[in-house]
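Regression test attached.
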Amino acid sequence: MRFSLNDEQRSFASAIDGLLAGADVPAVNRAWGAGDTAPGLALWGRLAELGVPALTVPEAAGGIGASPLDVVVAFELLGRHGVPGPWIESVAVAPLLLADTPHADLLEGLAEGTVRATLAVDGVAPYALDADAATHVFHVSPDGIAVAEAGDAIGSVDPSRRLFPVTPGERTPLAEGVLDRALDLAALATAAAQVGAADRMLRTAVEYVGQRRQFGRVIGEYQAVKHRLADVKVALDFARPLVHGAALELEEKSSTAPRAVSAAKVFASETAHGAGRAALQVHGAIGYTLECDLSIWLLRSRALHGAWGTVAAHRARVLDHLTTAR
Amino acid sequence: MSHTHPEGPELTDSERAFRAEAREWLAAHNPGRLPSMDTDEGAALHRAWEATLAEGRWSVVAWPEQYGGREASLTEWVIFEEEYYLAGAPTRIAQNGISLLAPIIFEHGTPEQQERWLRPMTDGSLVWAQAWSEPEAGSDLAGIRSRAVRDDERGGWVLSGQKTWSSRAPYADRGFGLFRTDPEAARHRGLTYMTFPLDVPGITVRPVHQLDGDAGFAEIFFDDVFVPDADVLGGVGDGWRVAMSTAGNERGLSLRAPGRFMAAADRLLDLWAERGADAPHLRDRVVDAWIGAEAYRLYTWGTVDKLSGGGDMGADGSVNKLFWSELDLELHETALDLLGPEAELRGPGAPSGGSWVDDHLFSLAGPIYAGTNEIQRNIVAERILGLPRGENRRAGA
């Protein structure tokens, strides 16, 4: 199983990490939130050079046809760096849905990074994320997929997210099972992004408590602070195997894959939630400001908590699978 | 393989055959739950079960063949444990010896000690008690005061002092622990790893009843007890290093087989199916217990990968211990809440013979033994996250 990443995945990860570490993503994120999407779109283009938007596009359409584990590797890093934009929509959802429809001609552009898709999905994603920065907007229901018109933006708890109600046009039916697979991959990518956010918040907190002094000593010396952060580390170390395990199950199309995805989404979201709470607490008042970079991951993880299936819905799905399988 | 947890990594044909063989043997021999091992009757039955296991060569699957093992891989060990817990086979009275002492004997014991002690601890004929803690040395183990004084004439050491919370001691044959051989040396230095019989003059074992009502603990009083040099493990004054050398041992308590928690999570789901309708508010906790067991299963395969590649757990052992001990506690508390007012019932007439409450009582000890969870959190914070030691002088352990 191998539960370790292979060399190719490791170098893919370090390429993404290297690019994003040098891209001042917090500034890109804040600009995006202020309505200036140019730096974020430029970053999209640079990530396209590494193949990130091409991951799930089939090779025949100019993509990579990568595995769910590759998707996980990429999204953990996008999450860790707080990259803004409709990435989950364009990479985890759109390519699968568009493949056998009249919209399949968009796949090549998606892979190249020149097409950016966003979408709303009945019952799971009521609003389309960042429709103003996307080139194509869709609406999906059990009856199929439709090109859609975006309405006026609604704000999010995460300033770098804008949500749009959409009005669908004419629908094209989707092949059997395609929507379920796309939604599973979206939930998995979200879980990976949450692991990335948790990881970043923990690092940020560790760095901060190692410098901040109160009562004559760095606050990282206090056991209350240590124990709080140790618990985050424990959760994080157990979230990753769930996410990786779910990716492997999706790849094998195992009958328990949906359950594994849901378990990963629940645990990763709770881990990010716990990491955010702990990081905010050990930062104190500075953490409660938008000036502090912590806000980027704290608010993003809150938004993703309910994205692509709420934690409650995913818990229910785990239990549903468990009780019907017995 | 349990009902609800998938097979795990791509197993080889021989690993699958190993699983089938274990499952078949357990189905034919498993006596199921036995009376508590910390009672006269239960101790005898548990020893007999160890003998049966040894006869089938299932007592220590990962050990070398010359000591009754099968030289199983780590993956096969995890598989065996899964099958063992899935079958609901008895708790292991041999565990202290097999998990805690044997790694030390393999690494530091003389060939004569290996010959004398390893095999008998696998068949129930030699049950070991641990004798680490003292009234003034619990988490702060280096505060040990029990002494060993040199006796050149007889060629050995004379022990005096007291140990406490010694698991299994009322029904065990021998004990092992650290004694201060150099009263001048500070804390960790000047300690030596000793083993001793529990039935010799000068030793008094006073049973201490644990929360479950059985004598799982004892105080051990040493009143000039002679220990020959042949029963000292490792070098004189080297006890701390010897004791800690296998702390991250792959088959010690730091790596608990996931089978235990997977089986418990499956039983919890059965209980939910039976009683969940009356307690819908417990749904999330039931799901989370299962997810936790699944996370532990997957994490363990990652650890197996790492250990198989020659790594050791190091401080990750603390991450691991924190997780399983909290999971175990939460899982059992959820079960008790599902049982409602019947949760307090024990023994015959109680739901499932009181097994939920018994297992819950055991789970309460998890965050305390093998290094309290507070000590483990210090280790994680200081050795993994790199936070400064400062306030507490040492990270414990």
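Expected vs. actual: identical. The longest strand of chain A covers residues 144-150.
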